[in-house]
Write a structure and sequence with these properties.
mainly alpha; 81% helix; 0% strand; globular
Amino acid sequence: MRSENNDSEKVSRLFRRYAVLIHNVTLSILHSEEDAEDADIHVWEKVMLCLDEITDVDSQETKALLITMAERTAIDMYRRRCKRMEMEVSLERYEVETYYSTSDMEMENLETELWMRSLPKQYADVVVMHYIAGISQREIARMLGISEGAVNMRMSRARKMLKERWDHDV
């Protein structure tokens, strides 16, 4: 019984501390309040499954873990949504439009997200945290326990890798 009380208290503290942050991360990726709320629920389900791994609710490691969970959950939901959209598009549309005429922003976002997934995790994490979640480089450095220079270097290397990928694909 004592363990259940501790878990309940831990979940309550986590929720009070990080619910808004998690929602902001999922909303920034999904751009839909309803989808973000669905993603939030999935994130909290995942939190419940790994509750024993969270030792300090207020630590930067916990904050980074929850941000990563929110990002990955939202990205997975975004991918599923794009796949559903692709399946719903009728064959006639492809017969009428040329291959190059698509201006679907979500498809471009998906391609960008796939490029991001090609980056090593340490580079992708800082790029997503900064450009998608809107976290400052100083805060990222503090959260990851590295210097601001290291964050800046990772972002610079990630941009270089993405540019090389862009030049190669275009």
